[in-house]
Design goal:
alpha/beta; two-stranded antiparallel sheet; 15% strand; five-stranded parallel beta sheet; 260 residues
Length: 260
């Protein structure tokens, strides 16, 4: 028996009648079932993908959390100075700040050395820059190495003294518990004995008044020794930086908490 199905549809205002036999109807029903199965399958796959995405998101969040915790657990040491700190003429890894990081890493201590040395820096330019440097991250130890360029330029020791004290005050205002180490410098004798003596005395005086740790002379056993300096006679060679690193380490190591 033939089953007649009539579909009525209005197209452009006219009514058209379509008649299909039962076999055509069954074909349409099968196509409809296939379409429904396809949609359901897509939904199931989509749900599975979202579950996988959620797992990936959780794993990513876990890794980021672990990295943040590790970063928070690492303490910062800032070397703030001029071209001596920056490592002028040598690879950054060969400069004394980089060598200090190697020493720390070899001991498994969680300290990160930040080299904030800038060639040509004077105490005045350092004073204008220091706040920006120390505000960017927590600081456990701050090594201040400035004044050498002041001396080479004949800047009044009174001015150098005032700027160094102001730098220390700024650092402590931002980080009250920071340990500060002041690297002492000397000027060449051609600047005149009076100037040289006044310049040399300002570092111990600052150390006493501000209660910071003093490295009496950063370039001990390096300054004035031709083979340990570059042709300019001012900046250490890689071999010279190794000696400077040992000098700094003598005063820095006791400041570092040895807990890994």
């Amino acid at each position: 028996m033939e089953l007649i199905v009539t579909f009525k549809m209005k197209i452009l205002g006219e009514q058209t009648v379509y008649s299909k036999n039962s076999s055509v109807l069954m074909m349409k029903i099968m196509k409809l079932q296939i379409a429904i199965y396809t949609i359901l399958l897509g939904l199931l796959i989509g749900c599975g993908s979202k579950k996988e995405e959620k797992v990936e998101d959780k794993n990513t969040a876990k890794v980021e959390s672990e990295q943040s915790a590790k970063k928070a657990d690492t303490k910062n040491i800032i070397f703030f100075g001029n071209s001596l700190t920056a490592g002028y003429g040598v690879d950054p890894s060969e400069a004394f700040a980089g060598l200090i990081q190697e020493k720390i890493d070899s001991l498994g201590w969680k300290y990160n050395v930040i080299n904030a040395g800038v060639s040509g820096e004077t105490t005045a330019s350092g004073l204008s820059r220091v706040e920006w440097v120390v505000k960017r991250q927590p600081v456990e130890v701050f090594i201040l190495e400035l004044g050498g360029n002041d001396g080479l330029r004949g800047i009044s020791p009174t001015e150098t003294n005032k700027n160094l004290r102001a730098i220390i005050d700024k650092v402590r205002t931002i980080h009250p518990d920071v340990e500060i180490i002041l690297a002492g410098m000397m000027v060449p004798p051609n600047m005149g004995p009076d100037y040289a003596n006044e310049f040399q005395k300002l570092y111990p005086a600052i150390t006493e008044d501000k209660e910071v740790t003093l490295i009496p002379f950063l370039l001990k056993d390096v300054g004035g020794i031709k083979e340990l300096n570059l042709p300019d006679g001012i900046h250490p060679t890689p071999a010279g930086h190794k000696i400077v690193a040992e000098t700094v380490w003598e005063y820095l190591k006791p400041k570092l908490k040895t807990a890994s």
